[in-house]
Amino acid sequence: MAHKAFALLTILIFVGLASTFIGAQQGTPVVGESPFTIDADRIVIQVRFAGNGPYRMVLRTGASNSYVDASFLSIVKKSGGALIPLSAIPEGVREVKARVGAQLKDLEIGSYRMNRTMAVLEDFNNMNLGEQRLSAPIHGMLGFNLLKGQVVQIDYLQRVLRFLASSPYKKDDVRRGDASRFTIPLRMSPVDYVPVVDEVYIGNKKIKAVLDTGYAGTLALLPRGVKSLGLSTGTLPIILTKIGMAAEISLTPELVPDYAYESERFEAYDAVIGHAFLSNYVLTLDGKGKLVTLEKR
């Protein structure tokens, strides 16, 4: 009996050591995480701030700013958050008559805590009218300003958003000939503060593309991209596309309406890569090391 107990203890110790080793191999410590759902090809998470909520918000990397409902003004004031007037907004907004930047204090995204972040107060009554595909109204949209300078992992398979202490991937951590995982440079636009990658090839031509989790399609060409590729704005042809070390895919790019990214001044970019492509991977955005890693698991 003693021998069986010793054998069982040995097995448990071995399994524990193996699990520790596997965990160390797979990544770095998780400092916070939050489950998310996919609603109409958008990442939706539950957020609390200043002890209020939870509120249903979309996470969109292609938006440089975060936005929350104008009705949050009273909560911001009670929590001592700063208010910064921005510009006039249309009549009919319930609690603010001018566009205002608000400091959200004690932000909670699952187990991850932030002392403060900035968001624009917006009339989400009107915004939800434009998001009728969603199964329920949202109270805000978290943009890339929340993520820049951090290491964030979007695990589409397990539906988990993770905040990491550091990235488990390095610049030279590329498996040559293995497109199941590839690491490419990530450029933070100094103008729009959105994640941009340059290692995108359409018809063997290198272009600049924004990674936007809020865009539902695979790849869409912006006006600059249509022009640089010498295409017409009519029916676009099927084009071979390659992103980093990923295998080439044959697709018909979509066109992004001129107004869709106007507020983000996206005229400097050629294309937008969206949910239909990104959701095939575990997406790690390393704002510290300026890298993005896409890995199939």
Q: β content, as a range?
A: 35-45%
Q: Return the CATH topology of the largest domain.
A: Cathepsin D, subunit A, domain 1
Corresponding CATH architecture of the largest domain = Beta Barrel
Reading off the top of the CATH hierarchy, the class of the largest domain is best stated as Mainly Beta
Question: How large is the count of helical segments?
Answer: 5
How many DSSP-defined strands? 22
> What is the overall silhouette?
globular
Q: pLDDT below 50 for ≥5 consecutive residues: which ranges?
A: 1-25
Task: Characterise this structure.
There is one protein chain. This protein has 297 residues and is an alpha+beta fold. It has two domains: 32-146, Cathepsin D, subunit A, domain 1, CATH 2.40.70.10; 168-295, Acid Proteases (Cathepsin D, subunit A, domain 1). 16% of the residues lie in helices and 40% in strands. The chain contains five helices and 22 strands. The protein has helices at 2-26, 73-79, 124-129, 223-228, 275-278, and strands at 30-35, 37-39, 42-49, 52-59, 67-69, 83-88, 98-109, 112-122, 140-142, 151-155, 160-164, 181-185, 187-188, 195-202, 205-211, 219-221, 239-243, 249-251, 254-255, 271-273, 282-286, 291-295. The strands form three sheets. Strands 13, 14, 15, 16, 17, 18, 19 and 20 form an eight-stranded mixed sheet that branches. A six-stranded antiparallel sheet has the order 1-11-10-21-22-12, with no helix packed on it. The protein has a six-stranded mixed β-barrel with strand order 3-4-9-5-8-7. The longest helix is centred in the first third of the chain and has 25 residues, at 2-26. The chain is globular, with a radius of gyration of 22 Å. The relative contact order is 0.16. Mean pLDDT is 80; it is low at 1-25.
